[in-house]
Records
---
Amino acid sequence: MFQTPFLRPERSARQVFEWAIRQAIFADKIGFSEYWIGEHATLNWEGIPSPELVIAAAALQTSRIKFGPLAHLLPYHHPATLAIQTAWLSQILEGRYMLGVATGAYPTDAALRGISDLSKNHPMMLEAIDIMERVWKGEPFQFEGTYWDAGFPEADGKKKLRDVRPWGGSMQMAMTGLSAPSPSISFAGQHGFIPASVYAGNDFLRSHFQTYREKMEEAGRPSDRLMHRVVRDVIVAETDEEARKMAIDGGIGLAWDEYIRPTYERFGVLKHLVHDPSMDLTKVDAEYLAEHVWIVGSVETVRQKMDAWIDDLGGPFGTLLIYSHDYIDNPEPWEHSMQLLVNEVVPKLATSAEVEAA
């Protein structure tokens, strides 16, 4: 699950927090493998500024599922502080923690930190990663950078410093891609990070798969498509009609109309979602998406759509991340959809045997 979250702006902070934790606990209970949480300071539909609080609150109420921010926006944190914070969370979760990082793409989040030139965000991210990786070694250093100064102190012989290394000694990291070609996916491949792609059509995804493979090979690393995460909307119900109604008239449809559509237009993603190039983009509504873009339907319909989708991609990838949406007022059908996906759809996919063998 990717808990962006897409929750209505009128939801209180407590409602957003409680929903995120409820979803984490339920996802763990029914067998989801990963739970990622977005970070945004000013966006009214994506109201979690501190994903680490959700992770911490869910850590002791879950036992199997892995957590990660997707992503911490590195230009907006002092990297040494964030390195200590994330390493501690990885120690608390004892291996159930992954760290997603990003540059930050929204001007209002940047303006809050006094940044008006977002072109500096990419070099800031690179410098931040360098500092964080130095801190995680737990060895003395002093660094004077373009954007930050940092260091790790010498141990006093009379008083040892605590272990600040991530659980297992290293941090598994991830980056998301929302464009094609994607500089973030390139960076992930160069550094061996997990690549996470927001779905915007199969050509879009194939571009990400290709970019990641090329950059991994250039870096001398084996290219494993099972590393890839893909974020997509999925709704499963007892019948096609129930699933369509839940999508079109529910949280997904509302989020699309009021928030996601303008966002996708801004980032140039919308055009990649339509199957017909002659399609008038102003007519891409929830009904069109439920038929052509979202994976919506009964167990058998969703299974067929997913098999066809994966077949067209040329085979399976690593992990499907479903968006979480605003079903706070009536969570049972939404949670039933999650259960059907885990228990009824995935085990019957033609590609399941291929993934297990791989």
---
Amino acid sequence: MTAQKKTKAKSDQAVGAAKETVGRMVGNERLTAEGRAQRAKGDGRQSVEKAKDAFRR
């Protein structure tokens, strides 16, 4: 996994988790859903890159 893509995936996961938490705290369902979607996007990126790494070996 390239360092840049790995960083982007981790960033999406962290920002998404933060948005989701803040959305729950203030009762904003839209922000919660947005955070959940962004975290899932980061999870997906990480999975794709891990699969690529597995085939490179």
